[in-house]
Structure formats: C-alpha cells, structure tokens
Design brief:
alpha+beta; 7 helices; 13 strands; CNF1/YfiH-like putative cysteine hydrolases; six-stranded mixed beta sheet; globular
C-alpha cells in the first residue's frame, strides 16, 4: 500500500527564524514517500535503482512542500567537487555536474541529495540570496563550502550576514576511516588531528566530519550551525550509504535538503 503521508522535514531553528524574509527550507527525511523495500520512504535519488516513477512522485511531494513546481526543484549531478553553479531557472538538458547551487531568484528551490554526506543550506535574509551545498569529506576538504559563500557574495550577499546550517549527516561515532585518510588531513593542516578519535582497529580513527564542516564554515566568516543528526544511526528517518555498505545491500536511497526564496 502506498504511503500517502506528507513529508515532514527536519528544520533548523536558525533558518526558521528568518521565515518572515520569505526563505523556506527543509532537511527531508524518509517520511512521506512511496518507495518500497530498501528504498522505503521518500527516496529522491535519480541515481538509485528505485522505480523511476516512484522517485518522480517523491520529488513531486518535496516540491509541493517547498511551494514550487516539480521542474523548479533543482539538484545537480553531484561529483564530490568544490564546484558551484549560479542558478537562474530550471536546468536545460542534462543536470550540470557540481556540488553546490546558489541563487537570488525567487521560486527556484535549490536541493542537495545525501546519504551520509553533509547537506549545508545557506541564506542571507537581507540580500535574499540562498545556497545549498553537498559537503562530503572530499567536497569540504577541497573548498565547496568557501566557494559557495564566495558565489553568494557575487550575488550581493554579505558573509557576515549568511547563516549556514549543516543538516543530518553521518556522526563521528559511525564514521571510521583508514590511515591514508588521516594522513591526507593532517598533512594539509596539523590542527586537523583534533577531528579524529581512536577506533578499535589499529591505524584507524573515527572522523568528526560534522565539526570539521562547521569549523570551516566559521572560518569563512559565516554564522555556522549544525543539527547533530546522524544518518547512520537514525535508520527510520535517514538513508545511509555506509549502513547499506556494512549490510551488503544492493543499493541505497537518498534524502534531499532544500531551500527556496518565496515571492514576497
């Protein structure tokens, strides 16, 4: 039987506080979708092997909640890059390859899909400029967060006014990494050692991607916050690539986080 419940996304108190400025957002969960099996719920992953008609319906439900037509709910073809695209309207042809989107145009919902990586939503309520970034370790490490802030500035935002909130992503208790990973981060900045805690396996460590992400945002000069929700641990609410990998499942769903400038 199809799930006819409406989506009920997690929201940031900091971003909710700017609702009077006409900026709407949501970190969507698995609730309110029609996908089944390993994709149970609101799977919006066009790259998954879920039935395309179910993914389309799930995305339609997200768009409805965001107050836009389905074709105006935009997600890029994410490639774990530092690349940012300025959005003026719906994409023409194939989705562009990038990991962050920014706009100053009302009625265009910017979304990022995740399944452990960090979804970061940005807003300058005074300039009415918004952004959305997909920040896994590679994107965060190579500058997607700072590039998103810079792209917003080029549209008239002021970084001192930007609110950036990291949504549900894998928490440090569930993100084990190997020695090469640790070496890469510490070689870049010895201070990065503070984001690693001991793990049970020799040479491995538990990585705090959440704190790393928020600290980079803070150093970029924005107001940075996190929701502290773990996609791996909260199975009823979130998809998780790493959880799926540990279980040797065939595929996994993706949740979406989105932000839109409403007409005012």
């Amino acid at each position: 039987m199809l799930d006819i419940r409406k989506p009920d996304p997690v929201r940031s108190p900091a971003l909710d506080a700017i609702l009077p400025s006409g900026i709407r957002h949501g970190y969507f969960t698995r609730l309110g979708g029609i996908s089944e099996g390993i994709y149970q719920g609101l799977n919006i992953g066009v790259g998954s092997h879920d039935a395309p008609e179910r993914v389309r319906e799930n995305r339609r439900r997200v768009a409805l909640w965001m107050g836009v037509a389905p074709e105006r709910l935009l997600t890029a073809y994410q490639v774990h890059s530092p690349d940012v695209i300025v959005v003026r309207g719906p994409f023409e042809g194939e989705r562009p390859k990038a990991d962050a989107l920014v706009t100053d145009r009302p009625g265009v919902a910017l979304g990022v899909s995740t399944a452990d990586c960090g979804p970061v939503l940005f807003a300058d309520p005074d300039a009415r400029v918004i952004g959305a970034a997909h920040a896994g370790w590679k994107g965060a490490f190579t500058g997607v967060l700072e590039n998103t802030v810079a792209a917003m500035e080029r549209l008239g935002a002021g970084r001192e006014r930007i609110i950036a909130v990291l949504g549900p992503s894998i928490g440090p208790a569930n993100y084990e990494v190997g020695p090469e990973f640790i070496e890469r981060f510490v070689a870049d900045d010895a201070g990065n050692q503070r984001y690693f805690a001991s793990a049970s396996r020799p040479g491995h460590a538990m990585f705090d991607l959440n704190s790393y992400t928020v600290d980079r945002l803070a150093r970029a000069g924005v107001r940075a916050e996190k929701l502290d929700r773990c996609t791996y641990a909260e199975e009823e609410l979130f998809y998780s690539y790493r959880r799926t990998t540990h279980r040797k499942e065939a595929d996994y769903g993706r949740q979406i986080s989105a932000i839109v400038l409403e007409e005012i």
